[in-house]
């Protein structure tokens, strides 16, 4: 089914399938790649998606609460038993899928930020290709967030206050707003360079990226952590979690 999403002055026809949220990547990028090593600390942190028994038994921090009553209710619940490997995989499915999508954004950001920081383009990449990489990052982030806010988050919000748009308390949604403010500035600069309205200055490009880089990478990690098995089991049964699409 095709849906029309309008975001930041852009219109996207989006087909609701997993590939709509990302573009294909060949596999996780290693943070030991030289591109990643040139980035600031906030952009080298990645969520650990291991399905080992130790991780399945590790307690995570309690989710953000929509109010004092929810905090009281959460604290009064008894400690949950350890998940079996099969249960962990079921509850961790959304986090694993989301981290796959987010890895594309990390990789694309790393390419652009490395060039902006060092003043050197990746080998074999033209200036036009570098600028197009930046515009692609913006386009896919906008589309990804549009699908989340229109379809994915409302499903989760039925039980999880972290995804509720009402009340203005969702930190994840506030992060979306901050990210889009930074993306608008970056897109405006890149388009001016492509239209030859201004010369490309790598220090300016880096400045445009630094204005929202920290919140972007915090968001990419925090969203995956919120969807992690130990947190999701607090809100959903096994039957319910299997029916949530992504």
UniProtKB/TrEMBL annotation:
Residues 46-82 are annotated as: Disordered. PANTHER family: EXPRESSED PROTEIN, HEMERYTHRIN-LIKE DOMAIN-CONTAINING PROTEIN. It comes from Coniochaeta pulveracea. This is Hemerythrin-like domain-containing protein. InterPro entries: Dimeric_xanthone_biosynth, Hemerythrin-like. Residues 95-227 form the Hemerythrin-like domain. Residues 55-76 have a biased composition (Low complexity). Coiled coil: none annotated.
